[in-house]
Every structure is written in C-alpha cells, then in structure tokens.
Amino acid sequence: MNYRGPFRVRIEEKPMPEILHPNDAIVKVTRACICGSDLHLYHGLVPDTRVGSTFGHEFIGVVVEIGPSVQKLKVGDRVLVPFNISCGQCAFCKQGLYGNCHESNSMATAVGGIFGYSHTAGGYNGGQAEYVRVPYADVGPEIIPENMHQDDAVLLTDVVPTGYQAAEMGGIKTGDTVVVFGAGPIGIMAARCAWLFGATRVIVIDHIEYRLDFVKKYAPCEAYNYKSLGDPVRFIKKITDWFGADVCIDAVGSDASGSLLHTITGKKLLLQAGAATALHWAVNSVKKGGIVSIVGVYGPTDNLVPIGNVVNKGITIRANQTSVKRLLPRLIEHVQNGVIDPKPLITHRIPLQEVSEAYRIFSSKLDNCIKPVLIP
Ligand SMILES: NC(=O)c1ccc[n+]([C@@H]2O[C@H](COP(=O)([O-])OP(=O)(O)OC[C@H]3O[C@@H](n4cnc5c(N)ncnc54)[C@H](O)[C@@H]3O)[C@@H](O)[C@H]2O)c1
Ligand SMILES: [Zn+2]
Ligand SMILES: [Zn+2]
User: Fold this and answer.
1) 356 close to ligand 1 (CB < 6 Angstrom)
2) Distance from Cα 359 to the centre of ligand 2, integer Å
C-alpha cells in the first residue's frame, strides 16, 4: 500500500525490497493487520509521515531471502514479526525494552524503530505489502509453531502483547478494579488480560455499541457507553464507593472522541499531540495512589495532561510501546494453552488490493469491524 496524504491510501507497484545489511531477511507477507495505530497515521496525526510510505507493523509471512549473517532463519520458514525493530544488543534491548532500541531509530531518543510507522519511528517500510525487508532478522522474528492458527500468529505481533503489557504496567493486584478506556482490539485484549493478573472487576468504556457487546462476552466484563453515562469520571467514582478505580488503562490514544475541546485543539488545529480525552478520564477516575497505564499512542509533542491531579492524587503513570519480543515466549504459551484466544478479534479478511476500502471500514468503524486483516 502507498500513503498519499491524510485519509488517502492506495495500492501501487513498488520495487521489490532488497537485502541492505547482512542481517536482513526478506519476508513474503501472508497476512497483515491494520491497527488503531495505523489510523493515527491515516488521519495525519503523526508527524513526518511521508507520502509514498508503506504502513503495516503487524504481519506474518514466509522467509524468501536472507542476508549472509542470518543464523536463526532459513528460506521457507514461516515467521511472525514483532512490530518493534530491535537490535538486541544495545543497553535498552538488553533490559528488555525492545520498543526503545537505541540503534534501530538512531536519529531519535524516544521510540525505537517500528515497521511502517513514519520517519519518527525510523522510516522503515511496513508489511501491508507483498514483500517486506526485515532488519535484525536474528532478533525479532519468531518461527510460527506448527499447530498455531495464522490469525493467532498475526495477533501475536502486536495486539496480544500490547493488551497484556497494558495490564502488566497497571500493576494489577488481586482484588483490583480495573477500568479500560477503549474497546478496540487493544482495549479488548487488555480487559481479557486484566483477569490474568488478579483483577476482580473489569470495566470497559467506549461509545461503539457493537464493540461493547463484543468485549462484554469476550473478556468477559462490564461495558458502558460513555455517551449514556453523563460524566464518565463521576460514574466510575460512583460505582467504586467514590474511591475511583485501582487501575485505569488508556487504550485509546490520540484519536479519542468525547470532548469537543480536545477534538478541536488536538485533532483539528493540531495544537496538541492528538486528543487526550481518555487520558484525562483515566487520571481523573483512578483512585488516590492508583496506577494509570497508557498504551494509547500520542504524537511526540505536547499534550494538555492534568498533571496537577497526577501530583495531588499520588498517581503512578506507566506507559510504553510494547516490548513484543520480551513477552512472546510467555504469550505463545498462553495462546497454545488456550489461556488467550486471539483469533475471534479478526472480523474482516480483505484482499490487499482493496486496502483503501479496508482503511475506510476500520477507520469509520463500519460493518461491526473490530480487526481487519489484509491478504496479499
Ligand atoms: N503502546 C503500544 O505499543 C501500542 C500498540 C498497539 C496499539 N497501540 C495504541 O492503542 C490504541 C488502541 O488501538 P486499537 O487498535 O484498539 O484502536 P481502535 O481505533 O480500533 O480502538 C480505539 C477505541 O477507542 C474508542 N474511543 C474513542 N474515544 C474514546 C474515549 N474518550 N473513551 C473511551 N473509548 C474511546 C473508539 O471508539 C475505539 O473503539 C491506539 O492509540 C493505538 O495506537 C499502542
Ligand atoms: Zn499495531
Ligand atoms: Zn537495541
């Protein structure tokens, strides 16, 4: 696919990617999902998203070529590829912070490289394509276990680890009440994973009814439409004896709706790095001393965050891009044992040729879409 500017993507022939470094591999893509993170690119909210780039950081495929130093993979291997590009050697990778690799996006000091995620994340082309170049081939890619369903494998490249890390960063303890903002794939998976850490009550907030219905059964959990709640913060306080939730998870990020002020300043005038509505609600509805876990993505510049409330309530904020590689061994096991069953999230299988229609459906939340996968 080819990005042509906000709200415009199309299919286009491009040169075949080549091995540029001895540790590169070329992967023939068999499935590539569209992510809520791609919508931030598509909506023009991520700086330095260049016309002509190929998105796609959630893909699986078959290795068709390897560079001379690649040891772990051979031609013909079926691999799932974490969305982070990590060197595996730098001080950050060594700590398990594979999303903050210091080498794969060396012009930046925040995020590491990400496939198909603008030049702020290294300018790599992504996997919503027939072929993709995978750097550091000995580090990221995992061979897909024989008995694993392809839909499960592709969801292990981002959605499952991100939902899991959202719950993990929340420091959930036995007996906790957890509120998840956002019932997209990430919020749905975060709600599901919250139980694994000992939550006794899980509440999801969104405004799209079909997604609320899905998460209610899938997680399973309580789910509320914020449009029917009046003030969602007051509602959460009211149902938690006026204490607030122990843990709040922002699984929405910069495309949030629900506040005219944030929509105008964050999404129309671009005076903030997107609309931080869910983040405001999270900070304001967590209890004193609670934890706010942010996996929703924001642009690198400023946001009007209610920092005074963070200080006065003694809140811990934890946030990051997910370290997919760190979590994969545990999560592959969870999927194989049936502890997590990701594939029901995939609602749409769309030929890569119809990528513009796929973005339109997912962006506008049409046709009960939860997660679309593109098939080249
Ligand atoms: N940190 C990471 O590593 C990482 C990885 C993957 C995705 N993400 C981010 O996670 C977020 C969610 O991704 P997704 O694929 O589920 O996206 P999505 O667009 O499918 O879902 C977002 C959901 O949030 C809902 N929403 C909008 N405003 C809201 C509000 N004020 N309160 C509650 N819900 C609201 C929308 O209706 C939608 O259902 C995105 O910001 C994405 O960039 C982060
Ligand atoms: Zn993603
Ligand atoms: Zn590194």
Assistant:
1) no
2) 14
